[in-house]
Design brief:
It is a single chain. By secondary structure, the chain is mainly beta. About 15% of the residues lie in helices and about 40% in strands. It has a 5-stranded mixed sheet, with no helix packed on it. Strand 4 and strand 5 form a beta hairpin.
């Protein structure tokens, strides 16, 4: 930014003899202020520097006419006249000198160096312009003070961050992890320095344990200046019950059950125990540290089992609700029967007649998909399965009886077919014409001539 110009008074005659230089300088510094016109040729800029760094002052001429350039301090003491330094301060060093520029550096800048520095150009009329040096002072100490080193979950604590001896006053920002918080700041001024204190009220939880609280400074003299403190929060145990066996399965009668209790807290829980809510613990339950084991479940084990853990802060618990289901049942595959037809040959009055005996088709037991489905927890399903088994057994018995009857019928049919028919003989031939029975017998039992004619036919 261009410095603000101030016209200087006339300087006697433009260029006096060398011996008159001190007198000329005195006259120039004590001359009356004469306003400058728009034809000003002198240019400079304000300088902002951090304490201890180097400030560079530049006096430049737009249209050089070989006029003399000099630089004066806030006390109107000449620092440089052309390339000559009358002031006995070695911190000022000539950087560049020419007809159009006078550039001077000031090392190890301090607060006392702050103020207006004047550039003068000996023209007719003389010209003068000033530049302002501003010295920035970063905070010397940045400290976080916590009201309590160790807090309890749910408690509100106070934190204070102090930035001392800065110029200008600093702006303090608060962060918890990556989240920005709002504090309340107070500013105190001591001489040319400022001390800023910011207060933060924070309600802590278990999730804040080990989280950093950061105090960050916004100041033009420093970048990324911050300090932090880690929170230490004590909290009650956090309890969890997990089922080891059966893994994600139903707890059935006759099967084992194993539970594990885990607890985390600060400080770490030292006391852990199992109990049964609203009832006594069964005698067959085995508790070993954080584990609970029931080797043979039954209906009397139903209930709520609780794991309790405690530390110096308090006590917490987690519950497990146990419900014992019926044991699984086995359903046999469906039974089907076949129809058998048997053809029995027989002879009746010399003519073969087919006799057909057929077994009646037994009723087939049909089980739908719904009845075959596994229903572990339904007594109605169990009774239905038993009825299905009884029907299958009865059907099998009936099939055996029918088969036995068929076999008996076949045997009887063959027997009667063998002994059933009509027989023709010629033993009584010749007795038809006899007058009485005796004669018929004599004729029937005739001599040898008739013996050859006796024949027997079996059909």
């Amino acid at each position: 930014m261009a410095g603000r110009a101030q016209p200087s008074g006339p300087a006697g005659s433009g260029g006096g003899a060398p011996g008159l230089l001190p007198l000329l300088l005195l006259l120039l510094s004590a001359a009356a202020i004469i306003p400058r016109g728009d034809g000003q040729n002198l240019v400079t800029e304000d300088v902002t520097v951090v304490e201890g760094d180097v400030a560079t002052i530049s006096c430049r001429v737009k249209n050089s006419d070989d006029s003399v350039i000099q630089l004066l301090n806030p006390n109107r003491q000449t620092i440089y006249f052309r390339d000559f330094r009358p002031l006995k301060d070695s911190r000022f060093q000539l950087v560049n000198f020419s007809n159009s520029e006078l550039r001077v550096s000031l090392t190890n800048v301090s607060i006392s160096d702050e103020g207006r520095y004047f550039c003068q150009l000996y023209t007719d009329p003389p010209q003068e312009i000033y530049t302002t040096i501003t010295v920035l002072v970063p905070p010397r100490n940045l400290v976080i003070d916590i009201q309590k080193e160790t807090a309890v979950e749910g408690e509100e604590i106070e934190l204070n961050c102090t930035a001392m001896a800065s110029r200008p006053a600093t702006t303090i920002r608060w962060f918890k992890g990556n989240k920005e918080l709002t504090g309340k700041s107070e500013v105190e001024q001591w001489s040319d320095m400022y001390t800023v204190t910011s207060q933060l009220l924070l309600k802590v939880g278990r999730e804040d344990d080990g989280v950093p609280v950061i105090c960050l400074v916004d100041h033009p003299a420093v970048k990324d200046l911050q300090t932090q403190r880690y929170l230490e929060v004590m909290y009650k145990p956090q309890v969890r019950v997990s089922q080891n066996y059966p893994l994600q399965g139903l707890t059935r009668e006759g099967e084992p059950l194993e539970l594990t209790c885990t607890a985390f807290g600060k400080p770490q829980p030292t006391d852990m125990r199992w109990l049964r809510v609203d009832d006594e613990m069964p005698q067959h339950v085995v508790v070993s540290g954080s584990n609970l084991l029931i080797s043979n479940l039954n209906k009397t084990d139903n209930g709520t089992y609780r794991c309790e853990a405690s530390n110096a802060v308090g006590k917490s618990h987690a519950d497990y609700m146990l419900f014992v289901y019926d044991p699984p049942t086995t359903i046999p595959p469906p039974t089907t029967t076949t129809t058998t037809t048997t053809t029995i040959p027989t002879t009746i009055t010399g003519t073969p007649v087919p006799l057909t005996a057929s077994t009646e088709a037994l009723p087939t037991v049909q089980l739908s998909n719904a009845s075959l489905a596994f229903q572990p927890d339904s007594r109605a399903g169990e009774e239905g399965a038993i009825r299905s088994v009884d029907h299958a057994v009865v059907g099998g018995v009936v099939a055996v009886v029918v088969f036995a009857m068929l076999c008996l019928l076949i045997i009887l049919g063959r027997y009667f077919a063998r002994h059933k028919g009509t027989y023709f003989t010629h033993e009584a031939k010749g007795a038809d014409d006899a007058a009485d029975a005796d004669t018929a017998i004599i004729n029937a039992e005739g001599g040898q001539n008739n013996s050859e004619e006796k024949k027997e036919y079996f059909i």
